[in-house]
Amino acid sequence: MIELRNVSLRYGSREVLKNVSLTIEDRTIKAILGPSGVGKSTIIKLMLGLIKPTSGQVLIDDVDITHLSEVELFPIRQKMGIVFQGNALFDSMTITENMSFFLRENLNLSEDEIRRRVQEQIKFAGLEGYEDSLPDRLSGGMKKRVAIGRALIFHPKMILFDEPTAGLDPVSSKKILDLIARLQREIGLGAVLVTHILSDVFAVADSVAVLYQGEIIFNDAPQKLYESAHPFIASFLANPED
Ligand SMILES: Nc1ncnc2c1ncn2[C@@H]1O[C@H](COP(=O)(O)OP(=O)(O)OP(=O)(O)O)[C@@H](O)[C@H]1O
Ligand SMILES: [Mg+2]
Predict the structure, then answer these.
(1) Alpha carbon of 88 to those of 99, 125, 135, 158, 215: distances in Å?
(2) Residue 115: CB atoms within 10 Å
(3) Residues less than 5 Å from ion ligand 2, measured at CB
(4) Ligand 1 pocket check for 42: Cβ under 6 Å
(5) What is the mean pLDDT of residues 198-211?
(6) Rounded to the nearest whole angstrom, what is the distance from the C-alpha of residue 212 to the centroid of ligand 2?
(7) At the N or C end, where does the chain have fewer CB atoms within 10 A?
(8) Mean pLDDT computed over 125-146
(9) Residues 83 and 159: beta-carbon distance below 8 Å
(10) What is the pTM of this model?
(11) What is the mean predicted confidence (pLDDT) over 116-122?
(12) pLDDT tens for residues 48-99?
């Protein structure tokens, strides 16, 4: 379970997050919806302990990670896979090497076990035949699936997606969203889905928090968005592409 308790964050004099409280239960998919630049990626970095809040606390499975050191954070971070906004693949490494790199660096596993885990992810992501390809031979949707495989290879219980469908065509987007839904259904994986795309939310999220001007202005089931009287939500529903 991931919990933000009254989290505020400043970059210099700019207050990006104001008293944000959020809970993400295991096995559920929570979308965080908000316009560009609102602080969505910042929330993901806070959950991983990559940045510290100016005030408030971040808890992972009831452990306050706010003041933990890098070494102390290591076992916490293993519980959460991360799929970055731009995938962050290594261009000079094959798909297999991309998927196994962090595993080999960080866990003391046998080469057999590493190979087994890579195969498991290649199969799950539908990337058979591309094991030895470099990322630039792959489409945007396939690169995203490699990034998802790399995140899953540690067998996390939560996965954090930063704008997983941004820049993808509708067919590739649907494949990624289907994969996210399958992860929850088949292996009980919880997810945080940061997005500015409304249809992502309706496709897979159990609940959605809307972030606007640094604050959570809505936190409920996606269908309840239509009952919100907040002017930003009303205009967002009317013009979802804005
Ligand atoms: N290291 C930093 N130093 C100063 N300002 C930053 C830093 N990182 C982000 N910001 C600013 O904080 C705000 C929130 O950034 P963040 O990347 O979290 O937004 P976002 O919602 O993910 O945006 P996008 O839709 O572009 O991905 C932005 O205005 C950004 O310019
Ligand atoms: Mg972002």
Answers:
(1) 12, 17, 11, 19, 28
(2) 13
(3) 40-41
(4) yes
(5) 97
(6) 14
(7) C
(8) 95
(9) yes
(10) 0.94
(11) 95
(12) 999 999 999 999 999 999 999 999 999 999 999 999 999 999 999 999 999 9
